[in-house]
Write a structure and sequence with these properties.
It is built from 14 helices and 14 strands. With 344 residues, the chain is of the alpha/beta class. It binds guanosine-5'-diphosphate and manganese (II) ion. Manganese (II) ion (MN) binds next to loops.
Length: 344
């Protein structure tokens, strides 16, 4: 009947903690975090909340990845927090390092120059992390069998219980990329990212789809709006990152050197890829996911969502910031227009 169909389309309307009460098989999906041994308390806190809000019901595995070996203390400490299976993985060495296209000397020079210009401006490891999350994490052997991942981070908060399986929701609605917070990036960290991106578009028109939502990060004058999905939360159909188009785009960015010479984040990189390669109907704003990462938080304000949440409705970055509002206003544009924009 109509009410049931409505709940299937808007599963947050469901007032019970399980969809229809019956156990459905899990998808090939996991909760994935890159994390350091020093972040034990913070990842415990995140896992406790993810379990409380959603995953105790479903039991999707946690996959924790580290460039170093996890300590026994870390593994025991995390596993003590949940009944759900946790897989611990070390990164393949070839995935964590300096891009072969940059020179050590120039990297050092740029780190010194950017040190006081912005957060992590002088951090080498932060750049390794951003490059890893942009072009490698989905290639980790522990993720090989996954169709979807939900990225989590130590020290974040989840405020709303989820009465449905978001992976299933993504699959049933043919969604590729899900986010909860979208906002402006610091321009100084991505000074040449759009120019580098449009070169790739012009060189690879065969990779561009007939329609895309490029008008979110790029305006009609071909200026970078800096709008990006905050990738510390993202639920993604991994076939997107594994596609030829995404790999070609990542390689192009890596060759340009901006992961090191500037401080390109995986968030603006994932976003530009999604915006030039996907249609709006393939992207989903998880408005019902109340979420805080240090710096910003989103607390839903729709009554049928807030009843699942414990958060301060004053934490409303998505309803107030320019990028949040722009997202609701922009629509797809054609490949022809996107190419004109890229050439402007
Ligand atoms: P921010 O969110 O941009 O402030 O950056 P974070 O410090 O939160 O780093 C993003 C994610 O990468 C978090 O999950 C961190 O735990 C992880 N991370 C950052 N740097 C490293 C690192 O050097 N090694 C490991 N293993 N994880 C890291
Ligand atoms: Mn973080």
């Amino acid at each position: 009947n109509r009410a049931l169909r409505e709940v299937a389309r808007k599963p947050w309307l469901n007032t019970k903690q399980t969809m229809g009460g019956e156990k459905k098989p899990l998808l090939r999906a996991a909760m994935v975090a890159l994390v350091r041994n020093s972040e034990l308390d913070d990842i415990r806190s995140t896992i406790r909340q993810v379990d409380d809000r959603f995953n105790r019901e479903f039991g999707y595995p946690y996959i924790l990845l580290n460039d170093e070996d996890f300590t026994e203390e870390f593994k025991v400490g995390v596993q003590a927090m949940t009944k759900t299976k946790i897989l611990f993985g070390k990164l393949p060495e070839s995935h964590w390092g300096l891009s072969p296209y940059v020179t050590e000397e120039k990297v050092q020079e740029k780190l010194a120059y950017n040190k006081d210009r912005y957060l992590y401006g002088g951090s080498y490891s932060y750049r390794l992390m951003c490059r890893y999350q942009s072009g490698f994490i989905y290639k980790h052997p522990l993720l090989a069998d996954l169709d979807y991942y939900w990225r989590i981070e130590p020290g974040v908060d989840y405020y709303c219980s989820m009465p449905y399986d978001p992976f299933r929701y993504m699959r049933d609605n043919k969604l590729i990329y899900g986010y909860t917070i979208g906002l402006k990036e610091n321009r100084k960290t991505v000074e040449t990212l759009w120019n580098t991106t449009r070169t790739w578009m012009l060189e690879n028109p065969h990779h561009l789809p007939e329609k895309s939502i490029i008008y979110w990060p790029i305006n009609e004058k071909s200026e970078y709006t800096l709008c990006h999905f905050w990738s510390n939360f993202e639920i993604v159909d991994l076939s997107f990152y594994r596609s030829e188009a995404y790999e070609s785009y990542f390689q192009h960015l890596d060759r340009a050197g901006g992961f090191f010479y500037e401080r390109w984040g995986d968030a603006p990189v994932h976003t530009l890829a999604a915006a030039i390669l996907l249609r709006k109907e393939q992207i989903h704003w998880f408005e019902d996911v109340g979420y805080r990462h240090p710096g910003n938080a989103h607390c839903p304000n729709k009554p049928e969502m807030t009843r699942n949440c414990v958060c301060d409705k004053g934490m409303n970055i998505m309803y107030t910031n320019l990028c949040g509002r722009r997202y609701t206003e922009v629509n797809d544009i054609s490949k022809e227009r996107a190419l004109v924009l890229a050439a402007l």
